[in-house]
Amino acid sequence: MPFWLVGTVVVGPLVGGGENALAGSAAHQFGAYAVALPLAALAGLFPVARPLAVGAARALCGAGADRFAEGPARSRAARLRTACWFVLHLGVGALVSGASLAVPPFAVALLLTPLLPDVRTYLGVDGSPLAAVLLPPAGLGMLLALAAVSAAVGALLAGRAVVLLGPAPADRLAAAERRAAELAERNRLARELHDSVGHALSAVTLQAGAARRVLDRDVEFVREALAAIEETTRRTVAELDGVLGLLRQDGEAGGEPSGPALDAVRGLVSRSGVPVALEVAGEPGTVPAHVSREAYRIVQEGLSNALRHAGGHPVSLWIAVRGEELEITMENPLPAAAPVVRPGGGRGLRGVTERAVLLGGRAAAGAHDGVWRVSVLLPFGGGR
Predict the structure, then answer these.
(1) How is the chain split into domains, by residue range?
(2) For burial by CB atoms within 10 Å, which of 28, 269, 271, 318 has the most?
(3) CA dist 371 to 81, 210, 312, 316, 332, Å?
(4) Is the torsion defined by CA of 222, 225, 227, 229 positive or negative?
(5) How many CA atoms lie within 13 A of 199 on its CB side?
(6) How far is CA 58 from CA 143, 163, 273, in A?
(7) Model confidence over 210-259: pLDDT tens digits?
(8) Which residues pair with residue 372 across a beta bridge?
(9) Mapping DSSP to helix (H, G, I), strand (E, B) and coil, where does residue 313 land?
């Protein structure tokens, strides 16, 4: 209607400006309609037109929300497609709307001509039997035709809406990038929770089991085990708060874990619940912060695996800084019996590999010469 009213202002002087727009001649009204279509196309080129059009199409066309593009139209092709939809929607809709206003009263008048002489006079038809027989079916046919045309136009618009307002290749790429970023963030948080909480539970379980076995014989050992459990849980709660803090950022960019790094490895080893021979070569203080944090989690997961599967055997841990690389190697003797595997398997080694790959490094784990060895190489220049 706004575009059509502007069209009446343009066309009015050409066909006689004194006419009322709604009661004017057919030339006046259809001329205004012809002027309104380019104006609608121009409005459809604005980026904000697509979200408005998509909102209307979702409500009216019954198509799934995932079949429409999200956000304003940025590319030239997307704006042109939105403009085409806008012209089709408003242009065809205007014709159906006009017919819906004009046809029903006329059709009802035809239905009533046999009964009301005043209606026959208004329509200028005679009262012959032929008119009485033919005019009512004509009125009914006009109503049925209007319903059929309306249904056909609705189906046409519903089909074209998905084509013209659906995601373009650039939209699909942007959506895929958003999903990949969300998935990467979820995986990162899952690794943080798994490594932190999983290690703590393994250590606490081992300490509690050892304390229970010597409860009546070695009170001092029990006291040390309880102190280790207290320290482990306190540290894990602090780490858990840090990870939950990332979740509370609600998708804000730039969030980085603020958990422990390589400088906390000695404390981790001392509270691990398993004997660890630690050797450090180079200067761990020169390791970039993001690599240092990931290295701590890798060591933590390696110790957790030793706690779960190595039966308390000693662990050898080497950490070496060589040039622009950090190398981590952990070894422990293979247990005499095969370890009990959780249903579905664990996720620790997969997490270690993911951490290494995301930093541009590599990781390997397996049995070698009677020991279980985990080897990780982390370059300093890898991506965050």
Answers:
(1) 45-167, 174-379
(2) 28
(3) 64, 24, 14, 10, 5
(4) negative
(5) 29
(6) 28, 13, 59
(7) 788 888 888 888 888 788 788 778 777 777 776 666 666 554 544 555 56
(8) 332, 367
(9) coil
Task: Tell me the pLDDT tens digit for each residue of 118-173.
Answer: 777 777 777 677 777 888 898 899 999 999 999 999 998 888 888 888 887 777 77
Task: Supply 276's token pair.
Answer: 């660890």
User: Does CATH place domain 174-379 in 3.30.565.10?
Assistant: yes
Contact 327, 318 (CB under 8 A): yes
Torsion angle in degrees (nearest 10) through CA of 87, 92, 97, 100? 180
Give 49's contacts (C-beta < 8 A, 6+ positions apart).
43, 73, 82, 83, 86
- The answer to whether 292 touches 300, Cβ cutoff 8 Å, is no
DSSP character at residue 320: E
Q: What is the pTM of this model?
A: 0.48
Please report, as a single letter, which amino acid is at residue 106. Answer: F
Q: What is the 3-state secondary structure (H, E, C) of 235-291?
A: HHHHHHHHHHHHHCCCCCCCCCCCCCCHHHHHHHHHCCCCCEEEEEECCHHHCCHHH
**Helix and strand totals (H; E) in the chain:** 11, 5
